[in-house]
Amino acid sequence: MEVTDYELFEVPPRSLLLKVETNDGLAGWGEPVLEGRAQTAAEAVRELMDSYVLGADPYDIELLWQQMYRSGFYRGGAVLMSALSGIDQALWDIKGKALGEPVYELLGGKARERIKLYAHVGGDDLGEAARSRVEEGFSAIKSGPGVDLEHIDRTPAVEEARENVRTMREAVGDDVDLMLDFHGKPSKPMAKRLVGELEEFDPMFYEELLGPEKNDLLPDLAERTAVPIATGERLYGRWEFKNLLESGAVDVIQPDISHAGGITELRKIASMAETYDVALAPHSPLSSVALAASLQVDACTQNAIVQEQIVLNEDVPNYLTDMSVFEHDDEGYVDLPSDPGLGIEVDEDFVREMATEDAWDAPVVRREDGSISEW
């Protein structure tokens, strides 16, 4: 068997899908997107596919991974790792289909029967939005604090954040897992205030209290709270997780299967984390392809605890012929997929219909004084 062709499709809301074809008629799918920079990622995919993958045996996943990673001399980073990630997913999809097994069976077999999904909460009425997601059958939800803070802000802004989180906690009760995602927006002084001010609402974890370039400051924050610290969605490859794990500051890592190196690398990162007693909660605010790939790693990973998803939102296009693979029970758990490869069938006709060249642009967010803020 050899790889003979590939196609890329930029689709809304912010995905780039890759189809890889072989000479025996099999096709695998992956998601090599870099949100807001899809065309940049697409060009990197073309370079890697044309240089290393076309004509190769798709079974040689580890060899191809190392070739794509090492042979360019300059390696890592958001663009190259995102491109590599989607190619890796597609190769695993092909191999699983060829052997008639889910990918997790090729990675050692399952470590669990099911995994919990969580839903996002947003909008003007956070309490009602949180209640609505729980009524849909989710027992885990995630939201931001609902306020953008200045570098050093006044007490009213912190109180607004407290009130927003209080509203969500009171709306869903004490039995629902409530995760708080700060998107790296707070400065260190504001993060120090927030970890104390919000602890009474019993978050499952604080996510990205600081941007990834400031992870060296996390140990100080970790000492100030009993709430677990989570981060990692903007780290690329196991080497970027090494110092984070060695710092002892993080309790949950969140590598993204479409950015951190695909199925091959996510599995290795998870195993590294397990040696530090750190949990895995893969980042995945992308399409059903990335979610399906993430579930394959969750299935065979002892320290996986919860899985992010957005595909069960009403406003997110469905790119599969059958979404029942993500059907969850009334506690928010989804059974492990059982079909070969990634366990999904992509609706290629719909993908082609939705394909565009400007699916999503990264927003520019400004503070009140006009300076640029994180989004």
Core attributes:
single chain, 375 residues, alpha/beta, nine-stranded mixed beta sheet, three-stranded antiparallel beta sheet, 14 strands, 37% helix, globular
Describe this protein's structure.
By secondary structure, the protein is of the alpha/beta class. It contains twelve helices and 14 strands. The strands form three sheets. Strands 4, 5, 6, 7, 8, 9, 10, 11 and 12 form a nine-stranded mixed β-sheet that branches. β1 and β2 form a beta hairpin. α1 packs across α3 (77-99) and α9 runs parallel beside α10 (262-275). It is globular. The model has no long low-confidence stretch (mean pLDDT 96).
List the helices and strands and how they pair.
Elements: E1 3-11, E2 15-22, E3 27-30, H1 38-53, H2 61-70, H3 77-99, H4 103-106, E4 114-120, H5 126-135, E5 140-143, H6 155-172, E6 177-181, H7 188-197, E7 206-207, H8 218-222, E8 229-231, H9 238-247, E9 252-253, H10 262-275, E10 279-280, H11 288-299, E11 307-308, E12 333-335, H12 348-354, E13 365-366, E14 372-373
Parallel strand pairs: 4-5, 4-11, 5-6, 6-7, 7-8, 8-9, 9-10
Antiparallel strand pairs: 1-2, 2-3, 4-12, 13-14
